[in-house]
């Protein structure tokens, strides 16, 4: 059984203009998030990612469908029981959402006070968490005295205070510079691996998916249009919309503007070849092109590394007769994916 199960979940909001249509923020979504997963949710702004997380956190009720966590259906629980369920879910935010009037220790202690834990237990737990996130020397400081990365560490410690099974992160590194992002991602990886906490990570940043997520779902207009292992979805996106999204974040695929530039500068036929895992196929392609007498020039390309597995795209300008190129591409298409620029 999945830790988090969404079945046919819909969330609509009232129309934003008089006489307008309701806004369908989440549209018939099915998801299974298993214990130990770091489940990335990606998509353009307005795709419904944040709404989805608010539903999982039971901060808002779904319009229809079923959301269950460890077998408990949130959609039928009374508010009193929902409060208990929320203690099992930690949440971190883009803008950290710390209390500026409380010290670092006070922020981390807050959910434990709300849960009514004894003072001695709270003190011991806060000390433990301060050590875990590397801020043991900052206990008495206030958020404004901290850097962005340190603030997010406090946010993570606070989210972990009640020992949740599930941690939800909504654009948790989007306000941080690249170096700090990597430090926070390292910490989140430790949270997942060493504490065994399942995570749902909403992001528009490739870095986060590449370095942290194990599974990924792509959302568009409220729907999950594609989901699976990160490597599979990023190296072979199937849905046209996820291809579009993936091509904006991975290296090596020319944008429509770049393609227009390539076409203007090169006389040959422009093709983009996709390679997965390893260089053998690349060498075969070059040998085959040369053997067919096709003159080729590498005009664009890049290689992506996702958790130790590589995939890449090379764009070539090919010059030979159309017939020779067509026959050669047909042979190569049995082994690699080739897209020709229109
Ligand atoms: N409280 C609300 N009332 C009305 N419409 C809302 C509300 N919250 C979200 N929406 C609408 O639902 C849709 C999905 O929004 P949501 O914030 O979930 O998307 P998102 O993918 O998280 O985008 P972003 O990355 O910009 O946060 C949008 O059309 C948004 O305008």
Can you walk through the features of this model?
The chain starts with a strand and ends with a strand. Strand 9 and strand 10 (223-229) form a beta hairpin. A six-stranded mixed sheet has the order 6-7-8-3-9-10, with helices on both faces. A four-stranded antiparallel sheet has the order 2-1-4-5, with helices on one face. It is an alpha/beta fold and 342 residues long. The chain is 37% helix and 28% strand. The structure holds adenosine-5'-triphosphate (ATP). The site of adenosine-5'-triphosphate has 11 residues, from strand 2 and helix 1.
Give the helix/strand layout.
Layout: E1 4-13, E2 23-33, E3 38-42, H1 49-56, E4 64-69, E5 72-73, H2 79-87, E6 89-93, H3 104-114, H4 119-132, H5 148-160, E7 166-170, H6 178-195, E8 198-202, H7 206-211, E9 215-220, E10 223-229, H8 230-235, H9 240-249, H10 256-265, E11 269-276, H11 280-291, E12 295-306, E13 309-319, H12 322-332, E14 337-340
Parallel strand pairs: 3-8, 3-9, 6-7, 7-8
Antiparallel strand pairs: 1-2, 1-4, 4-5, 9-10, 11-13, 11-14, 12-13
Bound molecules: adenosine-5'-triphosphate.
Organism: Agromyces larvae
GO molecular function: ATP binding
Protein name: Methionine ABC transporter ATP-binding protein
Specify the number of helices. 12
Described by strand count, sense and barrel closure, the largest sheet is: 6 strands, mixed
Low-confidence stretches: none
% residues in beta strands: 25-35%
**Computed Rg:** 24 Å
How far apart the termini lie comes to 46 Å
Helix and strand content put the structural class at alpha/beta
Number of strands: 14
Shape: elongated
Ligands, ions, cofactors = adenosine-5'-triphosphate
Mean pLDDT, to the nearest integer, reads 92
The ordered string of helix (H) and strand (E) elements is EEEHEEHEHHHEHEHEEHHHEHEEHE
Organism: Agromyces larvae
Keywords: Amino-acid transport, ATP-binding, Cell membrane, Membrane, Nucleotide-binding, Translocase, Transport
Protein name: Methionine ABC transporter ATP-binding protein
GO molecular function: ATP binding
